[in-house]
Amino acid sequence: MSRPVVARGRDLSSYDSNVNYGAYDFIIGKFTESDNFVSPGALDRARATRAAGKVFSAYHFARPGNGAAQADFLLSVEMPKAGDMPGWLDYEVSGLGIGFVNAFSERYHARTGWWPGVYANLSTFQGELQSGRGWRRPGQRLWLARYGANGPGVACDIWQYQGGPDLNVAYTPLPEMVIQSAGRSAEMAMVTLSDERVAVVVRGTDRRPYVRVLGSDGGARTDWQLIADVVLGSAVGATTRDGTGLDMVALDSDDRSVLFMAMADAERPQEVYVQDLQGTGTGGAPGITAVDGNLIASVAGVLPRTGEVYLNRWDRATNTWRGWWDATGQAS
User: 3-state class of 33 per DSSP?
Assistant: First the structure.
């Protein structure tokens, strides 16, 4: 018995034009290929899909090589967002092998918290990737191509039933396939940088902080970088805010450095840490700024001084704090 169709979609590459995005429930757009090629118009396709209120997903055309590195390359260009489907590994080149699929999938999952889907035509799937060979994880989606038939041939989530234009139907409801919240975390801080750039800090699924820089148009300028556990700074007193919030800002006028400030986690309440992240950009944001190469941090007081604001100067030359004082200049 065939499964009911629950959504209709189309996959696109740079060869497609004059697309009516509103005519489909979902769009899967080509973003990258191998480890060095970005499909022209990839960002425009993603933007148009989301603007039409439709579900978007990116696919990566795999070439022989390092599967993990190719996953990194895709994610350096397009990270999945809440409301998207996770990305797809387009397995069209015969002989890539399950080892490649595993390496790509594991790196993608480690970086995002989501398993990428896998696309293949039916004959390639049956010859090289058939279920039972140990590559498919729980929740990892399958997208099969088979033209001129009355079905995909094996159970799958999406069936590409026509090529040129490439048309698809989904058997798995889209709400079950889309990302309900960002894989890393919804907890983030953003700041506008020089040259219309935006820096984003998120706390990962591993609870460690990551930083990335985007252009104002949403395109990636840097890949996600783990903010190392080694930090500069010293504990602040009990008069300062505690919690797990993240703040970051780029500081230096030489456009080479970002300074990151993180409130301590639950194991070290009421401590603040600062780290210099080289090579990401410049700018400013509430909570942390720079004066003549020195860092000025601000935090809100807690009981009994709730509502007061305290400042501290971090001397980057000596890696020391001056000490906290309140906004009126009185020693705290």
Answer: strand
Task: Report the percent of the chain where pLDDT is more than 70.
Answer: 53
Give domain limits for the chain. 7-177, 188-326
Nearest-angstrom CA–CA distance, 172 and 169: 9
Query: Which residues, listed in sequence order, are joined to residue 263 by a DSSP beta bridge?
Result: 272
Domain 7-177 coded CATH 1.10.10.10: no
Cβ atoms of 148 and 120 closer than 8 Å: no
Whole-angstrom CA distances from 263 to 21, 210, 232, 279, 302 are 43, 14, 13, 23, 14
Whether pTM > 0.90 for this model: the answer is: no
Does residue 36 contact residue 63 with C-beta atoms inside 8 Å?
Answer: no
With beta carbons less than 8 A apart as the criterion, state whether 271 and 236 touch. yes
Give the model's pLDDT for residue 179.
87
Q: What is the pLDDT of residues 194-224, one digit of tens each?
A: 555 666 655 554 545 666 666 655 555 666 6
Per the prediction, the chain carries an average pLDDT of 73
Distance, CA of 171 to CA of 156 (rounded, Å): 7
- Residue 32's SS3 state is strand
β-pair type (142-145, 88-90): unpaired
